[in-house]
Amino acid sequence: MIEVKNLSKRYGAHLAVEDASFTISKGEIVGFLGPNGAGKSTIMNILTGYISLTDGTAKIGGFDIVDHPEQAKRHIGYLPEHPPLYMDMTVIEYLNFIYDLKKVKFPKKPHIDEVCKLVSIENVKNRLIKNLSKGYRQRVGVAQALIGNPDVLILDEPTVGLDPKQITQFRNLIEALGKHHTVIVSSHILSEIQAVCKRILIISDGKIVADDTADNLAKNLSSDHTITVRVQGPQAEVEKTLLGIRGVLSVKCLGVVEKGSLDFEIEPEEDADIRKEIFNRMSDRKWPILEFVTEEMSLEKIFLRLTDSKYTTSTKKIAKKEQKEAEEEFSSILDNSYNEEGDK
Amino acid sequence: MGAVFKREMRAYFTMPIGYIVIAVMLLLTGMYFSYMCQSSYANITFVFSSISSIALLIAPIITMRLFSEDRKQKVDQALFTAPVKLISIVLGKFFAAISLFMLPLTITLVYQIILSFVADVNWLIYLSDLLGIALMGGAILSIGIFISALTESQMIAGIFGIGVSFFIMQIDYFSSAVNAEWFTKFCTSISFIARFNAFASGKFDFSNVIFFLSVVTLFLYFTHLVLDKKRWA
Predict the structure, then answer these.
(1) What ipTM was estimated for this complex?
(2) Which one of A25, A65, A152, A266 has the minimum C-beta count within 10 Å?
(3) Cβ pair B190, B182 in contact under 8 A
(4) Of B215, B176, B222, B221, which Cα lies nearest the Cα of B192?
(5) B40 — contact with chain A (CB < 8 Å)?
(6) Are A198 and A215 in contact (CB under 8 A)?
(7) Chain A partners within 8 Å of B84 (Cβ)
(8) Residue of A nearest to B86 (CA)
């Protein structure tokens, strides 16, 4: 359905998109994930014919967006980052306008009613768009993209500025749309993408750094994992015992989390399963294990690792300290973005 | 083209602009018509000649928001990603602008009919007046649309457009200010007012039609270029 080959976009000296290639087949829901300014919107704007490309080709439904823009655009419904709405029109007037603009062939009234029903905006149909809340405007934006029933839906950060309930509704909507359309969704928030997309393209600095299913991304990159145990026992001796196990690289005491016990973070060698041994050794010494957690590398960490130039994508171990910092940084970014949304 | 035309026409009348333009034009045409009646000079051309320069100043108000506001509200993303040609969007906006411009001038038909009861009127000259003002209006409106495509602020587009209109109005004065034959010739050749006056006096010269149509084509083409270039930047 979508075929992109060696796509590049240059703004003067700045390379916004560099040599991006991917194909998306019919019925896929694909997520573009990347930090702000990574080039997600640029790629989307190129696919929809809003801006041109500097190099490479992009084909939608077999039509080149540069050579046959009209045929290609007929396959696309686009919701840009900022929904393109005329504030001085009512919802129904605006949708009628889009219907005429796109020269849709379906019978007018039933088609528009159907779209309104799908995104649940029937109750605000006759209100001026400027009087609508952010969530409703976003939905009118989606409705606009759906007019004409295009094969491909391109949604740029569709959930920004929505409250948690609306976000859930939106996810359901995207999933429902995915049954009949090819959908591309972009976001800088990982959980968004993880929730709806089977396939994820991670974009960083204008390059596609990963293109795989969410599960595979987690599997391939999570070769390093840590084990955290909560033990009731003396710190120095527990550490010594743990270090004595074959396959343990390092042990770090995390301090007291639960009263009367200590938490230890154990880094095992690759592929070494040391869980049984830990249990046996601790029980020998009558130090009860209260908690036992194996931490897989989460998608968040993968995302950070791939998009941060400090870390290479090889299996090189991330220094524990740096990882901790990165995690904190990420969670603060997440917090900030949620706060911002709340403010809006 | 139809969709954009319809949308812009509706927008003119959901916002005050359309009503203001029509009110001002009706007021002025009515005023000059009543002057004419008092002076017992029965020629509708007087009304057209009198409002021609004011029409030049009103045109930028009609066109100032056409592309600037779209860009500011980012609606251009919907327009330019729709399966239509860019030029049809430009033409849709142009025809909406010229329709609003000509709408209040149709009132002159009523005046002409009133005149025809009391005097011998020349309908050909009336048609020539109407054609002249439509062509001149089209020219200045296309310049206004071009200016509107250059900026995101309709205020800037409006002020700049009025400046350009003012300059066009003054061209005839410049021609007499500088004592050089080539300069005078140049000024009269690009003067909108002089060419409009030719229509108003009933002298139908095909070169004037070509001049105004060329200005329209040129500036609509420039608009197309500016919008297209933004995509390629």
Answers:
(1) 0.89
(2) A25
(3) no
(4) B215
(5) no
(6) no
(7) 70, 101-103
(8) A70
Number of Cβ pairs < 8 A linking chain A and chain B:
74
The DSSP bridge partners found for residue A78 are A154
Among A1, A145, A144, which Cα is nearest to A61's? A1
- A32 Cβ neighbours under 8 A, 6+ residues apart: A40, A43, A44, A184, A185, A186, A187, A193, A201, A203
A215-231: average pLDDT: 72
- pLDDT tens for B95-139 read 999 999 999 998 889 999 988 888 888 888 899 999 999 999 999
How far apart, in whole angstroms, are the C-alpha atoms of residue A226 and residue A266? Answer: 6
Q: Are A1 and A61 in contact (CB under 8 A)?
A: yes
To the nearest whole Å, the CA of A163 is away from the closest chain B CA by 23
Tokens of B2: 């139809």
- Summarised one tens digit per residue, pLDDT across range B174-191 is 888 877 888 888 888 888
CB distance from B80 to chain A under 8 Å? yes
Q: Kindly give the pairing relationship between strand A76-79 and strand A182-187.
A: unpaired
| Residue B192 CA neighbour count, 13 Å, CB half | 29
> Domain containing B122: what range?
2-231
- Per the rule left: phi > 0, alpha: psi between -120 and 50, beta: everything else, B208 is alpha
Q: Which residues, in sequence order, are bridge partners of residue B105?
A: none
Number of structural domains, chain B? 1
% of chain A at pLDDT higher than 70: 82
Q: Give the A window 53-112 contacts with B, CB below 8 Å.
A: 69-71, 73-74, 76, 78, 80, 82, 84-89, 93, 97-98, 100-103
What pTM does this model have? Answer: 0.80
Find which of A86, A93, A151 to mutate to test the B interface (most B CBs within 10 Å of its CB). Answer: A86
Pairing of strands A14-24, A2-11: antiparallel
What is the rounded CA–CA span in Å between residue A327 and residue A226? Answer: 15
Packing angle of the helix pair B16-38, B107-118 (nearest 10 deg)? 20
Whether residues A52 and B231 touch (CB distance < 8 A) is answered with yes
Which residues have C-beta within 8 Å of that of residue B225, sequence separation ≥ 6? none
**SS3 of residue A14 by DSSP:** strand
Q: Does A179 touch chain B (CB under 8 A)?
A: no
Closest residue of chain B to A53, computed from CA coordinates: B232
